[in-house]
Write a structure and sequence with these properties.
- Helix content is 19%, strand content 41%.
- With 340 residues, the protein is of the alpha+beta class.
- Among the domains are: 37-144, Immunoglobulins (Immunoglobulin-like); 152-250, Sandwich (Immunoglobulin-like).
- Strand 21 and strand 22 form a beta hairpin.
- Helix 1 (2-12) packs antiparallel against helix 2 (18-32).
- The protein is rod-shaped.
- This is Ig-like domain-containing protein.
Length: 340
């Protein structure tokens, strides 16, 4: 009725000046809104699947006005009506499962919601005769199905050095809508240019979606705090779901295990670039393993030097042995020729 009257006002104001028509329209709007005003609707933005949903519709009526009805719609379909002059005052229609005992003129409670309950909900408030002023206010509701499992991270190495490329994927499985994924390093968001968001993968049977976010950046020395890099992936859906997975990646620090001096007098360094503290034998063990040999843990330098010296002696003995054989063969050959 309100809209029809305003259309009539627009048609009537065609013969007036622009200012006069605006004044007439404002005057009519003021008269029409005196009885019913301040209609407010509260629809939750998101509700977890299986939880109840509470819808609120508040309004104000002047002293000379009475409420005629309140109607709730999902889309264009009415599912709830409250009419105080009718008995029973509450009517519930098919489509939405409403908790009758908890619902009234300003509050509607939907029972355990399903994902198909997502959509636009509208409250229509109408004043009684003679005005029958009517105002409709709407809000959107989304039913969320959260993931059963935490997000997972794949592709990371056990250790990293400055200059290495860190590539990884974070995946949040089976939710509706798809979870929002964010990457942080040492609790600082990773710049967007190093993050790739993939299109969610939708399951054709369940309708649930899987979200994937990749990260690709070069590890720098400042990424390591006390020798460790903290990589974190967080998954969230509205204010209902927030889970994260955190990885502490140690810095790959090469260790010098033993040193010695070569036979030529040059310094020798026994260096194994991929040996780490956790890869060494237990602290209670009495030895370390270096290139297949077991060295005394209490004196690794002296033991390694001893092995080098033994290796040199063995080589000298073999050379001497071969020289003796050659000399012996030559002596017997000369004697044979002299006899013949």
């Amino acid at each position: 009725m309100y809209r029809s009257l305003m259309v009539l006002v627009d048609e009537m104001s065609g013969g007036f000046s622009k200012d006069s028509s605006k004044g007439l329209k404002k005057s009519c709007e003021k008269e029409l809104s005196v009885g019913l005003h301040n209609v407010r609707v509260t629809v939750p933005t998101a509700v977890r699947k299986g939880d109840p949903a509470h819808l609120y519709c508040e309004y104000e009526l002047e002293n000379n006005e009475r409420l005629y009805s309140i109607k709730w719609y999902k889309g264009k379909r009415e599912f709830y009506r409250y009419t105080p002059q009718v008995h029973p005052s509450v009517q519930i229609f098919k489509g939405i499962d409403v908790e009758r005992s908890l619902s009234n003129e300003s509050h509607v409670v939907m029972k355990a919601v399903e994902t198909n309950n997502s959509g636009k909900y509208s409250c229509e408030v109408s004043a009684d005769a003679p005005s029958f002023h009517t105002i409709i206010v709407s809000g959107d509701l989304e039913v969320v199905e959260t993931p059963i499992e935490q997000p997972t991270v794949a592709g990371v190495q056990a250790r990293y050095r400055p200059g290495d490329i860190l590539r990884a994927n974070c995946t949040s499985h089976n939710s509706k809508p798809a979870a929002n994924l964010t990457w942080t390093i040492n609790d600082v968001p990773i710049p967007p240019q190093y993050v790739k968001l993939y299109r969610p993968i939708k399951n054709a049977f369940t309708g649930l979606e899987t979200s994937i976010a990749g990260v690709n950046f070069m590890v720098a020395h400042e990424h390591f705090l006390k020798g460790k890099l903290k990589l974190k992936c967080a998954a969230s859906i509205h204010q209902l779901y927030h889970e994260s997975v955190e990885l502490l990646l140690p810095e790959d620090r090469p260790r010098i295990l033993a040193t010695g001096v070569s036979a030529s007098g040059h310094s020798i360094s026994l260096y194994q670039g991929t040996v780490h503290e956790t890869e060494l034998t237990d602290q209670n063990d009495g030895y370390l393993t270096v290139n297949g040999y077991k060295a005394d843990k209490s004196s690794p330098l002296s033991s390694s030097s001893g092995w080098l010296q033994i290796d040199s002696y063995v080589k000298v003995c073999w050379v001497t042995f071969y020289i003796c054989i050659i000399c012996t063969v030559m002596v017997y050959s000369i004697r044979y020729l002299m006899v013949t």
